[in-house]
Amino acid sequence: VRDLEIEVTGKAPWHAAERVAERYADGRVFLAGDSAHEMSPTGAFGSNTGIQDAHNLTWKLAAVVSGQADERLLDSYEPERRPVGRRNVDFATTAFFGHQAIAGAFGVIAGAPIAHNQGALEALFADTEDGRRRLLRLREMFAILRMEYGAADIELGFAYGDSPAVIGDGTPAPAVDPLGHATVQTSRPGHRLPHAWLDRYGTPVGTHDLLRPGAFLLLAGAAGEEWCEAARQTARARGVALDAYRIGGTSDLRDRDGVWPSLCGHGETGAILVRPDGHVAWRSPRMAQAPHEVLAKAFDGVLGTPVAQVR
Q1: DSSP code string of the chain
Q2: Model-level pTM?
Q3: Is pLDDT above 90 for 231?
Q4: What angle (nearest 5°) sits at the alpha carbon of residue 45, between those of residues 41 and 46?
Q5: Beta-strand relationship, 197-200 and 25-26
Q6: pLDDT at 306
Q7: How far apart (Å, rounded) are the C-alpha atoms in residues 23 and 96?
Q8: Do β-strands 242-246 and 216-220 pair in parallel, antiparallel, or remain unpaired?
Q9: How far is it, in rounded angstroms, from Cα 64 to Cα 78?
Q10: What's the CA gap between 86 and 308, in Å, rounded?
Q11: What digits encode the pLDDT tens for the residues 187-215?
């Protein structure tokens, strides 16, 4: 608007940051959110990363304070979350560079004289062959931002496979998309519980809807009732909240779309144990001879506290 008078009352300089704390934990002090990592706002990964930090830490603090877990459980916070923070900071920086490239695509150059950049903008919107070419080139450049706006693997694909609070099963991790775009759902221990639609008495329910705040979740195959009962007894002995379900067969939960077998990684007699933060802690491909003992060891490994030590 050429005749609009504008008064600048102040300005606040801003610089993109790329920092990750050397340590996320030191004694009784834990860092989360912006105190643990600073990153470019490009993609809004900072908020998501901070929420993930809190989601990871709070259930562990609650378990230790209540006596359900040994303090060693808190040692898993840094090795789980710091690599994720580092990855997300790096990705946000890369996404920021993508925005720098877009302006140059139609002639606007940072630091160039005002007349040059004003002329580039006017040429962009001009009804000329050059204007149409500049606009087409700009639209092509916008396509590269799919890495930022569709970064599903950055948002959902983070995993804690090497964590001391996860019982690995020796299976290889799925390949990671270097663009951060495509994510592979898997029930491999350390990964986020896959989403699948189930059917409960005629009502659709997602697997994540089965997670209750502060509670573990055991999901077994159609013939895995022994796992469910063993999990309930083991959790009661420790004072740990847990919900257990079978999926398939005549159980209360039906595999609505027939995709769960390809996601869970176990047969009809197998099961997975999910932590309160929604990450798989343990998995068995089939029924064990002594499911109570197996699950007791699984809880020992995750919580670091044998049942005899629970207060």
Answers
A1: -TT---------------EE-S-SEETTEE--GGGTEE--STTSHHHHHHHHHHHHHHHHHHHHHTTSS-GGGGGGHHHHHHHHHHHHHHHHHHHHHHHHHHHHHTT--TTS-HHHHHHHHHHHTSSSHHHHHHHHHHHHHHGGGHHHHT-HHHHH----TT-TTS---SPPPPPP-TTS-------STTSBPPP-EEEETTEEEEGGGG--TT-EEEEE-TT-HHHHHHHHHHHHHHT--EEEEEBSTTSSEEESSS-HHHHH-S-TT-EEEE-TTSBEEEEESS--S-HHHHHHHHHHHHH---GGG--
A2: 0.87
A3: yes
A4: 70
A5: unpaired
A6: 62
A7: 25
A8: parallel
A9: 16
A10: 38
A11: 999 999 999 999 998 899 999 999 999 99
CB burial of residue 288 (10 Å; 0-12, 13-18, 19+): middle
CB-hemisphere CA count at 13 Å for 247?
28
CB 65 within 8 A of CB 57: no
pLDDT tens across 10-51, in order? 999 888 889 999 999 999 999 999 999 999 988 889 999 999
pLDDT over 50 at 309, yes or no: no
Q: What gap in Å lies between CA 20 and CA 107, rounded to an integer?
A: 34
Task: Name residue, tokens 């343990």.
Answer: 282
Greatest CA separation found in the chain? 83
Whole-number mean pLDDT of the chain? Answer: 92
d(CA 167, CA 300): 10
- Token couple for 134: 């500049």
Per residue in 255-308, pLDDT tens?
999 999 999 999 999 999 999 999 999 999 999 999 999 999 999 999 987 644
Q: State both tokens at 133.
A: 């070419």
Q: Is 5 exposed, middle or buried (0-12, 13-18, 19+ CB in 10 A)?
A: exposed
At 50, which amino acid appears?
G
| φ/ψ of residue 199, rounded to 5 | -125, 125
Taking 70 as the threshold, does the pLDDT of residue 311 lie above it?
A: no
